Amino acid sequence: MGAGQGWCLLLCLALSRVAADPEERQWREVDVVLDCFLVEEDRHPGSLASSRTTVEALLVLRQVPVLDDGSLEAFTDFQGGTLAKDNPPVTFEASVNLVQIPQAEALLHADCNGKEVSCEISHYLLQATEKKASFIANVQVPGGGPSVSMVMKVLRDAENGAVLHPTLKLPLSPQGMVQTAVELQVTTQTPLLNFLLGSSASLHCGFSVAPGLDLTGVEWRLQHKGHGQLVYSWTTGQRQAKREGASLESEQLLLAGDASLTLPSLTLKDEGTYICQITTSLYQAQQIVQLHVQASPKVQLSLTNKALPPTLICNIAGYYPLDMTVTWIREEPGGAPVPVSGASFSSLRQSTAGTYSVSSFLKAEPGPEGTTYTCQVTHISLEEPLRSTAWVAPPEQKTAFGVLLASSLFLLTLLFLGLQRWPGKLLLVLSPAPAPLHLKISQL
C-alpha cells in the first residue's frame, strides 16, 4: 500500500461517519493526496529518439477548500515524515493558494467511492533552454469524472547545503518533498459527452490563473479520424468561430474562468475529440472532451401476405452509431415470450446525413390461435429497447376469410349479370348536403 493509499484509507474511515445536514456544511481546508507517476523522457544525443521512464510519485495538494459534511473532524493534514524510509516516492507538495481547484471534493472522495484516480506528472518546459523548474500534473477521475491539469512552479532554489533529490536535482524541504505552487489549472467536469443528433451541446472547460498572469488566448480544436480543425478561437478582444453557430461564454464569464463551448444543431461532423487550450502570458495547458453524437432508431413492423407462410418485415431507420441489435420474440396466447432465430437482413443503407437503416425479415409460423411477434431493437442512444408488435392470424382463419371473400365475389358477379339483363339501368342519385340522404331509382 502506497503512502497516498494509506492516507486515503484513514480519510475513508473518517468519512464513514454520519454526514451533517447539507445546510450545515461549511468550507474546510484539507490536504488532498494522490498516488501518481512521474514521467521522464531522456533524449539521446544526436538522435530524435527518446526513452520514457515512469517512477512512483506522490502529489500533495495543500489546504484545498472543500465542503465539510461533518465527517472531517478526525481528519489530519498529511505529514511528510510518514513516508517510507527505503525508496520513498517522489513527493510534490503543491500550494493552491493562487488558484481555485473546483473539483477538489471529487478528488477527495474518489478512493472512498472505489475509483482509482489516475495522476501523471511530467516536466513542463517554458523554453527549450530553460531548466526543469516547472511540472504539469494531469489528474483524471475514472468513469466520466472530472479531469484537471495543473502547472506547478518549483518554489525553492538550490541553496548551499540544501538536500537535493538524487535524480531531479531539485532542493527538498525538511520533510523530503519538492515544494511547488499551482499557477494555472484547466479543468473539465465532463470529459465524455453523448448528445443526440440535432440537439445543442455544451462542452465544459474552466480555468484559474495565478495573480500576475494574463489570459491571452482560448482555442478549441476538433480531432477526428486523423484530421484536425479549428472550431473557435479567442484572443484579447477578438473572437473567431470556424464552425457555424459555435460560441463561448460572455466576455465577463470568460475572463472569470469559464471557457465552455456551445455547439447548436449537432451533426455527425461534430463528433470527435475536442481540445480546450488555455494560454496565459507564461503557461499553456489544455483539457480534452470526447463528444459522441447519437441518433435514435425508428422501428416499424409490417406483415406481407403475398406468400405462405407470411413474412414479417422490421424496418430500423435513422440510427447512429452503427452498432445495433435486433431480437425477434414470439408469443402464443397463454404462453411465455420466446426468442426466435432465423431472421435475415437487407443490405445496410446510409443516408446523406450519415445515419444508418436496415431491414430484418422473419418467416411467421402462427399457432392455431394466432401468434404475437415482436421486433426488439437495442441501441446505445436508447435508455431501453424499442419494440414493435404484430399479431399474425392462424392459418384456419385465413382460409375461412378466403372462402368468404370468394363467395362474396361470386354473388356480386351474379347480381351484376342479372342487372345487365334488365331493359334499363338503375341510377342511384344522392342529393347534396345538408339535405338527408335519399335514394332515387330512374329508368333509362
From TrEMBL:
It comes from the Eukaryota. Its main location: membrane. Pfam families: C1-set, V-set. Keywords: Cell membrane, Disulfide bond, Endoplasmic reticulum, Golgi apparatus, Immunity, Immunoglobulin domain, Membrane, Microsome, Repeat, Signal, Transmembrane, Transmembrane helix. Gene3D superfamilies: Immunoglobulins. GO terms for biological process: negative regulation of antigen processing and presentation of peptide antigen via MHC class I; peptide antigen assembly with MHC class I protein complex. Residues 1-20 form the signal peptide. Interacts with peptide-free HLA-A*02-B2M complexes or those loaded with low affinity peptides, likely facilitating peptide exchange onto higher affinity peptides. Interacts with MR1 in a ligand-independent way; this interaction may stabilize MR1 pool and facilitate ligand loading and dissociation. PANTHER family: TAPASIN (PTHR23411). This is Tapasin-related protein. It comes from Panthera leo (Lion). The gene is TAPBPL.
